[in-house]
Amino acid sequence: MQGDESLQILVGSEGDHLPLIEMGTCQPEASDQWDCVLVADLQTQKIPKHVDRQRKFLKNLESRGFHFKVKRDQKKVFFGIRADSGVIDMYRTLLMKPEDPSSKAKQSFNIATTRIRIVSFVVNSKMRPGETFEDLVKAGVFETMFLLHKGEKDLKRIWARWRNMFQLQPIDKIREYFGEKVALYFTWLGWYTYMLVPAAVVGLIVFLSGFALFDSSQISKEICDAHDIFMCPLGDHSHRYQPLSDMCTFSKLTHLFDNEGTVLFAIFMALWATVFLEIWKRKRAREVQSWDLYEWDEEEEEMALELINSPHYELKKHHHSYLNSTIILILTLFMICVMIAMAHVLVVYRVVAGAFFSRFLGQQSITAVVVTGAVVHYVIIVIMTKVNKCVALKLCKFEEPRTFSEQESKFTVKFFILQFFAHFSSLIYIAFILGRINGHPGKSTRLAGLWKLEECHLSGCMMDLFIQMAIIMGLKQTLSNCVEYLSPLLAHKYHLMRAYKHGHMSEDPELNEWQRNYHMNSVNTFSLFDEFMEMMIQYGFTTIFVAAFPLAPLLALFSNLVEIRLDAIKMVRLQRRLVPRKAKDIGTWLQVLETIGVLAVIANGMVIAFTSEFIPRVVYKYHYGPCRKNQTFTDDCLKNYVNHSLSVFYTKDFKDHSRMEGQENVTVCRYRDYRNEHDYNFSEQYWFILAIRLTFVILFEHFALCIKLIAAWFVPDVPQAVKNEVLKEKYKRIRERMCFTSRSTDV
Most exposed residue of 305, 497, 537, 588, measured as fewest CB within 10 angstroms of its CB? Predict the structure, then answer.
C-alpha cells in the first residue's frame, strides 16, 4: 500500500455488493502525521454517484500533492489527508525571500501548522467549477472534515486545567499548536484581564466609599426623616400616597454608586481604556516581532494558498458597488430599527407588567418590574444574537468580499453594530428616556391611551440603571460561561458514551484516534470570532455605563479568570482542533475597541449629567443652597436639597382622588421634577439645570477625550526596541544583497 500501488477498499458491510473505491495513494510511514480527516456516512457507499464524486475529489487532492488513506468502522468512512513536503516547499518559495532561509524566518517557520493550514484551505476550495467541499457536504457525499489533535499533552498539563487559573499562559506553545491568531487572542485576553485589576480595585473603592456616607449623608437623613412628605402615586393601580421616608433604604443604596467619586471614576476609566489599548499595541508589536511576523502580509499569504491550490489562479481584484453598498446600508439600518423595536417591546412589557404587579405587590412592583425586565432583556439578547449572526453573514456574502480576511473584517463590523444595539438599546432607554416623557401627575403620557408609561424608581433613575446593568451582566457572565462549558462537555461525554456502548470504537489505534477526534464538538470558521465578540460586548459593559455600575470591572475580572481556562479546556479537550491561522494583530477588533472607548466617554458623561443627581446637587450647593451667600456656613451645604428637588402637586387635581382610602386628608403630594407649583410647566430651575447639564457634558467629553489623546501620544504604539530590531533586519538584508551583487560583478 505504498508508493504507486493502488488501494482497493471495500467499504460496505459483509454480504453487501457495494462499489469499490479505487484510489492511488502515497502514505507517510508515521500514522500520527495525518493532518485532517474527511468523514462520510457508510450508507453513502451504496450510492454509486456519491462514490464517484468521492473518488474524483480525492484524485484532485492527490494531483495537488496530497496523500490520503481510507479507514472505516461500523457506521463511518474516514479519509486521512496529509500535505506532501513538496507543497510546503512551494509555500516557502512563494512567501519567503531568497535570503530568508538563513535568517530568523527559517527558525520561526512552523511546518506543522503551515501544512494543516494548507490542507484545510485546499480541501475547502473549489475542486472543479461550481463544486466545493461544502457543496459535497450539502449533497451528502461527505459528512464533515476535522483536524487531528496531536501533541497537545503539554497544553493539557500546563494550560487547560482549572488548577492553573492563576498561572501565566504558555503563549509560545499555544502559537505552535493553534497558530498565531489564537495565540494573539489569548495574549490579548490575558492582558485585558491583567489590566482589569486596577480598574476593579478603583471601582470597588468608589463603591465602598459610599458606605462611609451610608448613614451620614445629608440627603439620606432628610429622606429618612421625611415622614410628613407624601409622594404621588406612580402607577394607575397604586391607591395610596407613599411617605418619602419609605425610600430611606433605597436612598442610602443609591448613594453607593451615585456620589462625587462616580465622576472621578468615569474619567479614570476613560484614561484606563486608552492606556489599556496603547500598551496592548506595544505588547502586540513585541510578540509579533518575536514571531518574525512584523512585516508579514496577509494578502500575500492568501494569494500563495490560492496558487498552491491552482497554478492557474487568476487574481481577484478589489471592487466596489455603490448599489450593493446602498442596499447593505438600508438593510443594516432596518435591522437597527428592529433592535430599537425590541427595546420598545421591553418598554411595553415593563408598562404592562407594572400594571399587573401593582395589584399584588403594591409599591414593590417597581422593583419586580425592573428585575423581570432585565431577565426579559437577557432572553431577547440571546434570541437576537442568533438572528443578528445570520443577517450579518448574509449581508457580508452579498457584498462579495475578495478574500476570507476581508470577509471576516466586514462581518465583524456588521455583526458588532447589530449586537451593540441588541445589548445596549434598553440601557440607553433607561439611562436617558425612562421617566422623562411621562408628563406629570394628573396629566400622564399613556401607551395606546391605556397604560401609564413607566416611571423611574422613587430614589432615582440611577437605581434602575444599576439594577439593569447588574442583572444583565451577571446573567450574561454566569449563564454564558456555564452554557459555554457544560454544553460541549456534556455533548462530548454523550457522544463517547454512545460510541462505547454500541461497540463502535475500534481497537486499531489509528482509527480509534480518528474516532475520538470525530466525537469531539465541531468547530467552524467563526469559532474564534465568537470568543472575540463575547469579550467585546463585555468590554462595552465594563466601560460604556461604568458610571452607573462601578462594580462592572470587578465582575469582568472574575469572569475572565474563568473564561481563559474555560476556553483553553474547550479548545484542547472538548472541541476539534481549530485551523491554525497566521496573524500579526487582532484585526478589526482593535477599531471596535477604540470605538467603544469613545462611546464610553460620551455615555458616561451623559449618565453623570442626565441620569445621576450629581449636577442638581452641585447646582443647589453653589447656587440655591445655604452656602450660596454664607461661604463659612458650618452645616451641610445640601441642607433642604430634598425639598428643593421635589415639585408640588395638589391632590385635588387628580380626577380620582377619592379612591385614596384613608388618605383623603392629603392635599399635596410631591414628585421628582422641576415644575411650577400652579401650572405644572417646567420651572426656571429646570432650564437652568438643563443648561448646566449640557455644559457639563461638553466639558467632560472634551476633557476626557483630551486625556485620551494625550495618553495615546505619550505612549508610542510600537516600542523603540521593536523599531530598532526591524531596522536592523532591513539593514542586514540590504548589506547581504550588496555583498551578493559585488560578488556577481567580480565574477
Answer: 497
Residue 134's domain comprises 6-148
Give tens-digit pLDDT for 258-303: 777 888 888 888 889 888 998 999 999 888 888 888 878 888 888 8
Strands, E, within 442-562: which ranges? 443-444, 446-447, 451-452
Q: Are residues 479 and 551 in the same domain?
A: yes
Residues 375, 473 within the same domain: yes
pLDDT tens, position by position, 455-467:
776 667 787 788 8
Could you identify the residue written with the cell 463585555? Answer: 538
Shared domain check, 486 and 341: yes
- Domain co-membership, 412 together with 292: yes
- Clarify whether residues 402 and 359 are in a common domain: yes
d(CA 71, CA 492): 22
Q: Which helix (H) or strand (E) holds 70?
A: strand 66-72
Task: Please write down the long-range contacts of 44-52, taking CB distance under 8 Å and 24 or more positions apart.
Answer: 44/77, 44/140, 44/141, 45/11, 45/12, 45/18, 45/19, 45/21, 45/77, 46/12, 46/16, 46/18, 48/19, 50/139, 50/140, 50/141, 51/19, 51/21
The pairing of strands 36-41 and 76-83 is antiparallel
Q: Which residues pair with 77 in a beta bridge?
A: 40, 72
What pLDDT does residue 659 have? 60
Nearest to 344 by CA among 478, 267, 437, 270: 437
Neighbouring CB atoms inside 10 A of 717's CB total 14
Contacts of 631 (CB under 8 A, 6+ apart): none
| Listed residues 591, 612, 633: the one ending a domain | 612
**Pair (199, 96) in one structural domain:** no
Domains contained in the chain, number:
3
pLDDT at 185: 94
Q: For residue 79, list its beta bridge partners.
A: 38, 70
